[in-house]
Amino acid sequence: MIIKPTIRAHIIWKLSEAEFYLRQLKHASKEIFGSIRPLDFGWTNADHQGKAQVFLFLFSAFLSPLRCVTFYIKKTCENQKPPSRWYKEQIKKAVKERSLLAAFCFLRDSDVHDQALSGTPGVRHKVDLSAQTATSEFTLNENTLLTIEALKKHRWAAELLAGDSVVAISESALAKLSDLVQEGIQAGLF
Question: What pLDDT score was predicted for residue 133?
Answer without folding.
Answer: 47
